[in-house]
Amino acid sequence: MRVLLDECVTRDLKSEFTGHEVFTIEDAGLKGLTNGKLLADASGKYDVFVTVDQNLPYQQNLARFSIGIVVLQAPRSTHAMLAPLMPKVLAILETIKRGEVIVVG
What we know:
The protein has 105 residues and is α/β, with parallel strands linked by helices. It has one domain (2-104). The protein is 23% helix and 20% strand. The chain has four helices and five strands, in the order E-E-H-E-H-E-H-H-E. A five-stranded parallel sheet has the order 2-1-3-4-5, covered by helices on one side. It is globular. The two termini are 21 Å apart. The mean pLDDT is 93.
């Protein structure tokens, strides 16, 4: 599974995605793009986009993009706060479909 981490997700979380190819926005050359343009460019190149942006599902028609979306809910976007969510995220990666949005928190 090719996973793309949003700019707002700590890059330290990359190591938690065992068995998957994980890229940051910077790694992918997509830094600075707005959400719509970012998701359009990532569609088809990555399987899942991981973000902590709680508003993303309300700002975009996510079903039109060919990428699954995982929204992480935590008090802060730190490794210590997000790492406990990872067992659930890894399980979701096994079944998530393109265009699907799953909130984990």
